[in-house]
Amino acid sequence: MAHPQKSIADMSIGEKGVICCFQDEDMSLKLLEMGCLPGTEVKMSNKTPFGGPVCIKVSGYALSLRKDEAATIMIR
C-alpha cells in the first residue's frame, strides 16, 4: 500500500523526507533554483508558531520558506 504524500509544511522538527514532486508549477522553478530538487533529502530544522516560516536543511544549507511555499513541496 502506498504511503499518502505529505508536504514539507506537514513535517515535524527533526523529521526527514525526500522531495518527490511539486504541487505548484509556477513556484517549482523558484524552489528548484534554491536546491529543492526531486530525490533530495530534506530535514525540518525549525518551525515558527501560527503558520509562520519554516526552516529546512537541504543540499547542505538551511533554507527558510513561507508555509505556503513549503506546502507545495511534496515528500515521501
Automatic annotation (TrEMBL):
Record InterPro entries: Fe-transptr_FeoA-like (IPR007167), FeoA (IPR052713), FeoA_core_dom (IPR038157), Transcriptional_repressor_C (IPR008988)
SUPFAM superfamilies per the UniProt record, alphabetical: C-terminal domain of transcriptional repressors (SSF50037)
Top-rank lineage group of the source organism: Bacteria
Keywords tagged on the record: Iron
Signal sequence extent: none
Ranges where the Ferrous iron transporter FeoA-like domain occurs: 6-76
Residues in coiled coil: none
Record-linked SMART domains: FeoA
Pfam families named in the record: FeoA
Protein name: FeoA family protein
Organism the protein comes from: Rhodocytophaga aerolata
Upper classification of the organism: Bacteria, Pseudomonadati, Bacteroidota, Cytophagia, Cytophagales
